[in-house]
Amino acid sequence: MPDQRVSIPLPQALPALASPDGVHKLAMSYLPNLHGASRAIRADLHVLYRLSLPTEIDGTTGHLVIRFRAPDMIEGAEEIDAPDVLHAGDRVTVRVVAEKRREDDDGRTRTRPVLDEEVETWGKALFERHGVTVHDFVSSRRWRVGERGSRSFTIRDLTATVSSVTEDSEVLARGLGRGKAFGYGMPIIL
Hints:
Layout: E1 3-9, H1 10-13, H2 20-28, H3 41-44, E2 48-52, E3 63-69, E4 78-80, E5 91-97, E6 99-103, E7 109-113, H4 119-129, E8 132-139, E9 143-145, E10 153-165, H5 171-174, E11 188-189
Antiparallel strand pairs: 1-3, 1-4, 2-3, 5-10, 5-11, 6-7, 8-10, 9-10
């Protein structure tokens, strides 16, 4: 399954970057119209995606780039050469929702950011839940996407070297962590 890329002029894409929902709507506009047959088109079509600004991985000057990983071709996208198997020794990066969730005594879900002192343990465990052990782990500082009171996430970029991968790991095809509908969780081999 090759990766695919769509490049959108930055002025045209900027309004969508105001919220996670805008990002989702922009990315989903490139998927086929299922005319209401799916409430979760990204998951149903097995699509992962990641947005890149000009200074980020895959970024292009003056453009927002959406990198898709999908089993079918996306109309208007260009195919890009990308490995489809993860091996020991590969260096991988992934932008993730870095939050811990728990239920309080009243049954409400409470969320807090993953703190700097716990991010390495948390990040390695996230990879391990998807059949990948890693070393040489590095995390970016955390930042918030979206406004409080509406949909928002605490985000981090995780980068590590793969030590081993289980035979049944589908991390490249399925992604890892939460927020995949909003462009998070798609591992990229560097």
